[in-house]
């Protein structure tokens, strides 16, 4: 049986393997005082490529408005109207000269 000499792997190789296969980190942190549980934090972390995530059924970014970039047309119109209103208020406000400013 031949013994293989293993080459040290670089960070890029390790990251490539993690993204290709996926990595799951899970843990619980509990903080207690005098046998009274004060706080419990459950940590669930999945690290993988987008292709791997979709293959295992994770695609929350498609339905999340913040990440998908989809904006409701009515909400967009309301935001445009608000920006226009604020711009008009700025244009109507009296412009002070630098020497007229109060303060220090």
Describe, in plain words, how this protein is organized in 3D:
- There is one protein chain.
- The protein has 5 helices and 2 strands, in the order αββαααα.
- It has one domain (11-93).
- Strand 1 (23-33) and strand 2 (36-47) form a beta hairpin.
- The protein is an alpha+beta fold.
- The chain has a two-stranded antiparallel ribbon.
Q: How helical, in percent, are the residues? A: 40-55%
Which regions are unreliable across 5 or more consecutive residues at pLDDT < 50? none
The whole-angstrom Rg is 28 Å
- What gross morphology would you assign? elongated
Mean pLDDT: 82
- Structural class call reads alpha+beta
Strand order of the largest sheet: 1-2
The largest β sheet comes out as: 2 strands, antiparallel
Topology as H/E string? Answer: HEEHHHH
* Gap from first CA to last CA: 84 Å
Number of strands: 2
Percent of residues in beta strands? 15-25%
How many discrete domains?
A: 1
Q: In DSSP terms, counting alpha (H) and pi (I) runs of 4 or more, how many helices?
A: 5
């Amino acid at each position: 049986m031949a013994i293989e000499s293993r080459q040290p792997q670089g960070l890029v190789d390790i990251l490539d393997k993690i993204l290709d296969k996926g990595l799951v980190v899970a843990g619980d942190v509990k903080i207690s005082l005098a046998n009274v549980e004060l706080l419990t934090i459950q940590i669930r972390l999945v690290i993988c490529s987008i292709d791997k995530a979709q293959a295992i059924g994770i695609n929350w970014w498609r339905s999340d408005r913040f990440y998908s970039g989809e904006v409701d047309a009515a909400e967009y119109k309301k935001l445009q109207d608000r920006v226009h209103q604020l711009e008009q208020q700025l244009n109507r406000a009296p412009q002070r000269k630098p020497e007229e400013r109060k303060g220090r």
